[in-house]
Specification:
The chain is of the alpha+beta class. The protein has three helices and seven strands. The chain has a seven-stranded antiparallel beta sheet, with helices on one face. Helix 1 packs across helix 3.
Amino acid sequence: MAESSTKSIVVAAPASRVTAVICDFVRYPEWTEALDRVEVRQEYEDGYAREVRFVLDAGVLADEYTLIYEYSEDLSRIEWRLAEPSRMQRRQDGAYDIEDNGDGTTTVTYTLEVELSVGMLGMFRRKAEKMIMDAALTQLKNRVEQLGATETD
């Protein structure tokens, strides 16, 4: 069984704003450096994205893949899985756990497990997952906090 990697960050914003940014997939290329395009292909009845197609171009790492999303009723957990193997990935499972700290901040915990199509030693895979999570959480924090600053300006 493969191991997953987990990392948390505190965002200076309410949980509702964090969730709104996470769920606004088509805007990801505006604030996520490695994504060229994102397309919501299917939605649930409530309007939340179910199936989302991503076009990733991070230099030597380029891929197109589709994720299937599921949401907890209170949106405190957003999970995804790879719909089908892509050129670079056999499997991807992940989740955001979003916890309101009660003081105007939110703790976001990102869990990720990726199985690449190319062979990679476990320690290198975990290092790649850590780099992906660090970038994703930092970029998410910056986007959410930037949106909050423009709301008060």
